[in-house]
Amino acid sequence: MKKMSIDNPFFQVMGRLGDIIRVNALFILCSLPILTIGAGLSALYKTCFQLMDETQQGLLKTFFTNFKSCLKRSTIAWLPMLFVGLLLFFDMIFLGTTKMIGVWKLVGIVVGCLLLLWEFLSAWLYAVLAMEDLGMKAGISKAMELSIRYLPATILMVLLNNILLFCALFGMYYVSLAIPIYLFAGFGLIGYINSYFLKKGIKKV
């Protein structure tokens, strides 16, 4: 009888996996308008925090309550972050087509450093905005501070956040394998793993 108990680790893991799959679907739904991806990320992280603390009150209700509460401030932060990220990304593509000598080598180093800082900031920003009612400037300042203070965790999160990009570097075959995983549970699973680091850092500040 003990093996069939809902307290059995197997059932607990499967139950949490089910939560992650549902959170993943809700995140994708709320991120279909690209303009709301920031709010979707904030809602994903805050919901994952509540799952860890067992304080959620119905997953659907919890997620949409979090999405609504984060919508304004996270969207205000997301739009300029999206613009800057796209600008840096296309700059890197352009630089990849040039001979990296002379001044272009220096430009490449500067753009690469700025892109890395953007990645660091993105790893923390939407979780910070989910947990605190901060303006964009204060949110960016705190997110950058946390990203440097917890640098090993930040690097790990950046690697997880860019798995799909790494797949693209190896070829479209690997992207075709990764996309179904992302659609099923990938965003939710990465968000849940990241939440362990994010929650620890945010609570200590």
Helix content: over 70%
Radius of gyration: 18 Å
Strand content: under 5%
| Annotation field: number of helices | 8
Q: Provide the low-confidence segments as ranges.
A: none
Gross morphology: globular
Structural class by helix and strand composition:
mainly alpha
Mean pLDDT: 90
Give the distance, in angstroms, between the N- and C-terminal Cα atoms.
45 Å
- Main beta sheet, described? none
- Order of SSEs: HHHHHHHH
Count the beta strands.
Answer: 0
Provide an overview of this structure.
Helix content is 84%, strand content 0%. The protein has 205 residues and is mainly α. It is globular.
List the helices and strands and how they pair.
Elements: H1 9-31, H2 37-53, H3 59-96, H4 103-131, H5 136-149, H6 151-161, H7 163-170, H8 172-204
Summarize the structure.
The protein is mainly alpha-helical and 205 residues long. The chain is built from eight helices and no strands.
Characteristic terms for this protein:
globular, mainly alpha, 205 residues, 84% helix, 8 helices
